[in-house]
Amino acid sequence: MMPLQKTRAASDRRRNLLAAWHLQKGTLVPLAKEALNEQVTPIAGTMLATVAEWSKYAMNRSIGRPGSDIYLADVTTGDRTPVRENVNDRFVQAGPAGRYLLFIENGHYWTVNLATRAATNITRAAATSFINTESDQTSPEKPPFGVAGWTTDDEAVVLYDKYDVWRVRSDGSGAERLTNGAAEQVRYRVVRLDPDEERIDLTKPIYLSVFGEWTKKSGYARLEPGSGPTGLVWLDKNVGSLAKARDAGVYAYIVQAYDDSPDLFVGGADLAAAKQLTKTNPFQADFAWGRSELVDYKTATGRRLQAALIYPAGYQPGRKYPMIVYNYELLSQNVHRYVAPSDREYYNLSVFASHGYFVLQPDIVFTPRKPGVSVIECVTAAVRRVIEMGLVDPKRLGVVGHSMGGYNTSILATRTNGIFAAAVAGAPMTDLVSYYGDHHWSSGIAETDHIETGQERMLVPLYEDLQAYVDASAVFAVHKMATPLLLEVGDQDGTVAWHQGIELYNIARRAGKNVVMLAYIGEDHGLRQKANQMDYQKRILAWFGHYLKGEPA
Predict the structure, then answer these.
(1) Dihedral sign of CA atoms 316, 322, 326, 327 in order
(2) What is the DSSP letter of 144?
(3) Strand positions, DSSP E, 333-433
(4) pLDDT digits over 396-451, tens only?
């Protein structure tokens, strides 16, 4: 396709065919056969290279279904030995010692012994899944939780399941869980403190990040050889960015919360005795500030979810406030994120709170072919829960989002019978029927990929389930829209074509609905020009101020 050719023209011109130059023999052995449909990767410490070749799967790859045939190439002769057909080459890797090749097939990790070429399913006997089977992605294979690394001499692969860290032997002889996060629904992950270290040495202490799935607490633990993890720091805040001095036993990490700006803590190997080294925002105490908390709720189908709720600055108990719902996908993990006020960050949640709004950030999970229904179920359930808490006025609810959040907002504005008194949708997708045949212009890729297996999660082509596409599009319900809607588009948007916003605007106007569109000339998917950023924020605040607080238009 021409848009894709234009986008990739420069990189394609720089492509070349990898070859092995044998200096002693004075020979050059080609390893790559063609430049556009394969990737050759030498395996360190061996005379082999992996080849991922995808010419048979080019169409599938263009619609979000990656597949490759994997070969081992002998760098002395260029000869290739087939390893596996139609696997996702993104998850193919060789161990740093050059003994094994790792890949995923049918929900399991496999290795190939590079000496014997024997393939082994190394996770079949493990009493867990290393694949995120709960993911709402519609790609053919669910994503893995990840690979932490390899142990010394490629003896084992260190893998993640949902909560824990496992040592899985590369020859398939066994798997050992190294942490105990599943019991408490706490997620452990390896922290690599030495960027130059290729291997994970389990004979030495290993630092782990720790995160509570439902508490959103975080911190660090240390895994000692032969024993379970020992907690070092565990706070009801956001704890991250652990680092170690190169030549000293000095460690540093950053702590933040919604009402506590990020600060640096420095200490020894045990971390618990670390001292605060910075005070990044000493002026905050001079201003009214909100706070944040987690809200638990369930959808109508019984799905347990959470939301982050920010209280208005200067909150007074007993008073009911207006509320703005800021939405995208999974946002409850932002409960401890510090947001410094800014007049250029147009969706700045602290600015919203300073203007007297509660701000709700709900989690949204999607059902294939039903993105619109999913948005409505998840967001309205979260809103109902906050209303039940007696904090907000149900007649003064607003909703705002950008890109996928803009899509969500357009659905909520047109398909919820006026639950929201005002809505702001930035760079929204509004018509999946027309959008299906469009391009993601910044990458050149057809939107069929994005819509079927990307964020829209439609799973099947338009022509297989046209009604599902209609039901998932705001434009087909605009005649029922009862929410005043402010649209924002940039005429140079290469991510979501701006005519998506124009479609909804023109149809809504024809239907006599309350809609305003802001078109920023020369702007892409996000506004870059300072004047436009400030202008958009002012207009958002004015829109919500008028419809949620009764301020003059």
Answers:
(1) positive
(2) B
(3) 358-362, 392-402, 422-426
(4) 999 999 999 999 999 999 999 999 999 999 999 999 999 999 978 777 788 888 89
What is the rounded CA–CA span in Å between residue 470 and residue 462?
Answer: 10
Token duo for residue 450? 């994005």
User: For 356, what's the count of Cα atoms within 13 Å in the CB-facing half-sphere?
Assistant: 14
Report helix, strand or coil for 256: strand
| Contacts for 333 with CB less than 8 Å, ≥ 6 apart | 216, 308
Query: If pLDDT is split at 50, 70 and 90, which confidence band does 59 have?
Result: confident
Structure tokens of 61?
Answer: 């790859």
The pTM is what? 0.93
361 φ/ψ angles, rounded to the nearest 5 degrees: -120, 95
CB-based contact 451:434 (threshold 8 Å): no
Q: Which two tokens stand for residue 369?
A: 């072919």
Per-residue pLDDT at 63 exceeds 90: no
Q: For tokens 């905050």, what's the residue?
A: 284
In this structure, what DSSP letter does residue 67 have? -
Q: DSSP states of 435-502 as a string?
A: HTTSEETTTTEEHHHHHHHSTT---S-GGG-HHHHHHT-GGGGGGG--S-EEEEEETT-SSS-THHHH
The token pair that represents 84 in the structure block: 């596996």
CATH architecture of 287-549: 3-Layer(aba) Sandwich (3.40)
**H helix intervals, 154-201:** none
Enter the DSSP assignment of 79: -
Give 129-179 pLDDT, tens digit per residue.
Answer: 999 999 999 888 899 999 999 999 999 999 999 999 999 999 999 999 999
The residue extents of the domains of the chain are: 1-91, 287-549
Closest CA to 432 of 504, 482, 361: 504
Contact status, residue 42 vs residue 98, Cβ threshold 8 Å: no
pLDDT of res. 184: 95
User: Distances from the Cα of 300 to the Cαs of 8, 14, 377, 381, 473, in angstroms?
Assistant: 45, 53, 7, 7, 22
Tokens of 382: 């979260």
Packed helices 371-388 and 404-415: angle between N→C axes, nearest 10 degrees: 70
Distance CA 180, CA 488 (A): 47
Q: Three-state SS string across 453-464, please?
A: HCCCCCCCCHHH
Burial pattern 362-376, b for ≥16 Cβ within 10 A else e, equals bbbbbebbbbbbbbb
CA dist 450 and 459 (Å) reads 10
